[in-house]
Design a protein that fits this description.
By secondary structure, the chain is of the alpha/beta class. It folds into two domains: about 200 residues, Phosphoenolpyruvate Carboxykinase, domain 1 (3-Layer(aba) Sandwich); about 280 residues, Phosphoenolpyruvate Carboxykinase, domain 3 (Alpha-Beta Complex), CATH 3.90.228. It is about 30% helix and about 20% strand. The protein has 17 helices and 29 strands. Strands 1, 4, 5, 6, 7, 8, 9, 10 and 11 form a nine-stranded mixed sheet that branches. Strands 12, 13, 14, 15, 16, 17, 23, 24 and 27 form a nine-stranded mixed sheet that branches. Strands 2-3-19-22-18 form a five-stranded mixed sheet, with helices on one face. Helix 2 runs antiparallel to helix 5 and helix 12 crosses helix 17. The protein starts with 14 loop residues before the first helix and ends with a helix. About 55% of the residues are buried. Bound molecules: guanosine-5'-triphosphate, sulfopyruvate and manganese (II) ion. Guanosine-5'-triphosphate binds next to helix 9 and strand 18. The site of sulfopyruvate has 9 residues, from helix 7 and helix 8. Its main location: cytoplasm. Catalyzes the conversion of oxaloacetate (OAA) to phosphoenolpyruvate (PEP), the rate-limiting step in the metabolic pathway that produces glucose from lactate and other precursors derived from the citric acid cycle. It is found in: Cytoplasm. Belongs to the phosphoenolpyruvate carboxykinase [GTP] family.
Length: about 600
């Protein structure tokens, strides 16, 4: 794809960067090398090239100006956890939560795939910064890729180009990410991480989480390892600001597994009665949160990303008007369906009937989903109407509450509060959730997904739990910890809680707890609100819904705690004593 003229290459003043680029070029043999400057002209030239070769298809430019559709290879539509490896010298450092390979073996295996793989192609060098360019909490990386689709997405998702390169040259160090789409053969596909080398190698997939290396590979797997040694946290969390009618804003960070509601909660629109009173919601981040203790002992958080790679299905004017408003222009859609006038469409958007499905085939009603269940939009965060001005703040935002949650059809109530930090860490470590289409494999199977980091923690979970516990020290002003479940189902199989905008009612209760104002009852699993402790004005709940959303089932929790105990035992001697003791205390109170 050299059809369009791109600005000329500008090698770096940093020798280590030039050397690495030269080394990669010698291995991969590209026809040309392009150093990305992040300019509009560069983006336009890339898009023109991709339009010329069919990588991007123009959508209806009257209704969706500047928007494009990309159709993936049908075998390359989600993260591939079974092909994702964390490579330390010692297997125990990766832990039972990761696939492990020794670094030398991993390099040899994947370098054999990279050998000559960019012949006939352009190699792009993408300097990027995760987090505001002037923030001490931010970290930089360079991704080398042969995919212009990756370059365009990285431009929307990160601070990419000349400013990032200047910071890298000042700092002298950066995370190295090498990516090639390869042949898109699932048998020749690996996502490898080398935390001790601060490097990533990804071959054979063009899908977001496998290919946009700033996101899960850097900002979660590599960063979680860095964060452990530097005393901070890299988490799979949204960050949202809740402004009350008095004008106070509380920031909440929430960890839900992939496709379990982070984007939606981060952009929620308050119910009418709340809006009329003056409640406002501010989006800081929808997927990743880096946080560290500030001088006052509170945790301060930044969103390392600059865009959203959001789940399309289910996004509508009713469920998430802010997301829908964000994606009306200058958006890349991946694997959505289209209407007969070439507008993007997905299940749950509206009642129009699409013309073509995500693979471009004529859509037949009743013949399966039109959009892929993991179809996504990529858009700059600045296009979101609720984008918080504090999202660009170098010092980050102070976190008042941390929320864990998952998809649990049964047992788990709408919300409860952990007694203290140690209990909160146990609540996070025991999270369970039903799997979704964000990763290949079976959907709807309950699995343990501690802190929503099962696919993303770059080291042994036992050490990670210990790292979380270590934040509780003299002088710390830690957030309160909660657990939510928007996905509780009734006997009829329907969701019992309306969710979306109404989730603000639960967040209001949490803020009330933080301020010592809201009521709750103590149980073995933590403090549960009674229905009267929440503002439920205007919410219709059946008797079954009230019982299940606010009820506590000791019998069910006893067996849940048995399961949690077995899970933690899987980490052996390495599991922190304090976490096991907390589990034992609660299990005893449950009579287990
Ligand atoms: P990743 O980007 O994969 O990390 O996911 P995410 O956590 O940002 O998920 P997202 O907010 O995109 O939600 C995924 C799915 O959950 C969508 O189909 C939503 O419609 C649905 N969802 C989100 N919030 C709620 C809720 O409060 N109730 C119900 N029932 N569904 C919800
Ligand atoms: C997730 O799967 O949690 C995502 C999408 O946020 S991806 O970046 O592709 O991993
Ligand atoms: Mn995610």
């Amino acid at each position: 794809m050299n059809a369009s003229p791109l600005p000329s290459s500008t090698p770096s003043s940093l020798e280590a960067l030039n050397d690495w680029v030269a080394e990669v070029a010698a291995l991969t043999n590209p026809d040309s090398i392009h150093w990305c400057d992040g300019s509009d002209a560069e983006f336009d030239a890339l898009v023109a090239g991709m339009q010329a070769d069919g990588t991007l298809l123009p959508l209806n430019q009257d209704t969706h100006p500047g928007s494009w559709l990309h159709r993936s290879d049908p075998d390359d539509v989600a993260r591939v956890e079974h092909l994702t490896f964390v490579c330390y010298e010692k297997e125990e450092d990766a832990g039972p939560n990761n696939n492990w390979m020794a670094p030398a073996e991993a390099h040899a295996k994947i370098d054999a795939l990279f050998d000559g793989c960019m012949r006939g192609r352009t190699m792009y060098v993408i300097p990027y910064c995760m987090g505001p360019i002037d923030s001490p909490l931010s970290r930089c990386g360079v991704e080398i890729t042969d995919s212009p689709y990756v370059v365009a997405n990285m431009r929307l998702m990160t601070r990419m180009g000349a400013d990032a390169q200047a910071r890298i040259e000042r700092e002298g160090s950066f995370v190295r990410g090498l990516h090639s789409t390869g042949e898109l053969d699932p048998d020749r596909r690996y996502i490898m991480h080398f935390p001790d080398e601060l490097s990533i190698k990804s071959y054979g997939s063009g899908y977001g989480g496998n290919a946009l290396l700033g996101k899960k590979c850097h900002a979660l797997r590599i960063a979680s390892h860095q964060a452990r040694s530097e005393g901070w946290l890299a988490e799979h969390m949204l960050i949202v600001g809740i402004e009350n009618p008095q004008g106070e804003t509380h920031y909440i960070a929430a960890a839900f597994p992939s496709a379990c509601g982070k984007t939606n909660l981060s952009m929620l629109i308050p119910p009418d009665a709340y809006r009329e009173k003056g409640w406002k919601v501010w989006t800081v981040g929808d997927d990743i949160c880096w946080m560290r203790p500030g001088e006052d002992g509170r945790l301060y958080a930044i969103n390392p990303e600059a865009g959203y790679f959001g789940v399309a299905p289910g996004t509508s004017a009713k469920s998430n008007p802010n997301a829908l408003a964000s994606i009306q222009h200058d958006t890349i859609f991946t694997n959505v369906a289209v209407t007969d006038d070439n507008q993007p469409w997905w299940e749950g958007l509206d009642d129009r009937v699409p013309a073509r499905d995500w693979q471009g085939r004529d859509y037949v009603a009743g013949g399966g989903k039109a959009a892929h269940p993991n179809s996504r939009f990529t858009v700059s965060a600045k296009q979101c109407p609720s984008y918080s001005p504090q999202a660009e703040a170098a010092q980050g935002v102070p976190i008042s509450a941390i929320v864990f949650g998952g998809r649990r059809a049964s047992l788990v109530p709408l919300v409860f509060e952990a007694r203290d930090w140690t209990h909160g860490v146990l609540v996070g470590a025991s999270m369970g959730s039903e799997t979704t289409a964000a990763a290949t494999g079976q959907v709807g199977v309950m699995r343990r997904d501690p802190m929503a980091m099962k696919p993303f923690c770059g080291y042994n979970f036992a050490d990670y739990f210990g790292h979380w516990l270590s934040f509780d020290k003299p002088g710390a002003q830690l957030p309160k910890v909660f657990h939510v479940n928007w996905f509780r189902k009734g006997d009829g199989g329907d969701f019992l809680w309306p969710g979306f905008g109404d989730n603000l009612r639960v967040l209001e209760w949490m803020i009330g707890r933080v301020k010592g104002e809201a009521g709750a009852v103590d149980t073995a699993i933590g403090a549960l609100p009674r229905p009267e402790d929440l503002n439920l004005d205007g919410v219709e709940l059946s008797d079954e819904a009230r019982d299940k959303l606010f009820g506590f089932d000791p019998e069910g929790w006893r067996s849940e705690f048995d399961g949690i105990g077995e899970y933690l035992a899987g980490y052996g001697e390495r599991a922190p004593e304090a976490l096991l003791a907390e589990h034992a205390r609660i299990a005893k109170r449950l009579g287990g």
